[in-house]
Specification:
The protein folds into 2 domains: about 130 residues, no CATH class; about 100 residues. Helices cover about 70% and strands about 0% of the residues. Helix 4 packs across helix 7, helix 7 runs antiparallel to helix 10 and helix 12 packs antiparallel against helix 13. With about 280 residues, it is an all-alpha fold. The radius of gyration is 24 Å and the shape is flat.
Length: about 280
């Protein structure tokens, strides 16, 4: 809150330094009016999120939350992680980082730790999803705030933010299955996991956006997505498979890109991305 307050003051001071941005009484009233109007969307979302949190607290659901998750998962780690992800996204709605972590550390993390998972990995898993609930529809608080500033549709902004941040929904699972990503392991394992994960995230971004040097065809996007998942998961076998698939698709894509850039007829200039 202090950061936001001082940023507003700094913006006003910086605006006064140029004549064309200097605030007069009319501009100041207009800025205050727009700020109040934009805050209404965010306030409504935070209020709805608070209702959910209050229901969990008042009903006493939080006290038995971990045992419920374990019973629903029937001992399956992956299913437990999916359930914990959903719970973290819901419980983290509209909360700042500190209270978000405190709630999830008490409610969701113990269930994962009981499955013999490192406490560091378990707590990072729930905290990560609690934070990215800010870009998860339908209660994407950060997206609503951004939409209020940009004057765009809040729901469309939320889904765009979710699509652009899709890698963030995969990486926490790799914290559990690939401890080197959270600096647990030998130096070589940590370096290998970090480098391959970075490449994997780049492949994932290309797959989601459907574009690198030129537009990706559907088959290239599918194989890049598979390569990304293999690279993000720590381990020599998955890394080698991911690199092999990624390099192959990259070679095919570069060859197609060069072919597209070649003039089709003498004196004709090809447009990148054209068919």
């Amino acid at each position: 809150m202090k950061a936001g307050f001082y940023t507003i003051l700094a913006t006003v001071v910086m605006a006064m330094m140029r004549k064309n941005t200097r605030l007069n009484r009319r501009k100041l009233v207009s800025a205050l009016r727009k700020g109040a109007t934009g805050a209404l969307q965010v306030a409504a979302v935070c209020a709805c999120a608070g209702i959910v949190i209050s229901i969990v607290s008042i009903t006493g659901l939080g006290l038995t939350f971990s045992s419920i998750l374990i019973q629903l998962a029937h001992g399956d780690l992956f299913l437990l992680l999916v359930l914990s992800m959903i719970a973290s996204l819901i419980l983290g709605m509209g909360l700042p980082a500190t209270p978000c972590y405190i709630i999830l550390a008490v409610l969701a993390a113990p269930a994962i730790v009981e499955m013999k998972i490192s406490p560091l990995a378990a707590h990072l898993f729930v905290f990560y999803f609690g934070c990215i609930s800010a870009i998860t529809p339908p209660v994407a608080v950060a997206a609503y705030a951004g939409a209020a500033i940009a004057g765009s549709d809040p729901m469309r902004t939320g889904y765009t933010a979710w699509r652009l941040g899709l890698a963030a929904f995969i990486v926490p699972f790799m914290f559990i299955y690939g401890p080197p990503l959270i600096m647990v392991g030998t130096v070589l394992e940590i370096i290998q996991a970090s480098v391959t994960a970075l490449i994997g995230v780049a492949f994932l971004a290309a797959s989601i956006q459907g574009f690198t040097l030129t537009r990706l065809v559907p088959a290239e996007r599918i194989f890049l997505f598979i390569a990304a998942l293999l690279l993000i998961k720590a381990g020599w076998m998955t890394d080698l498979a991911g690199i092999a698939i990624g390099v192959t698709i990259a070679g095919v894509h570069i060859a197609r890109y060069r072919k597209e850039r070649q003039p089709r007829r003498s004196g004709e200039v090809a447009v990148p991305g054209s068919r």
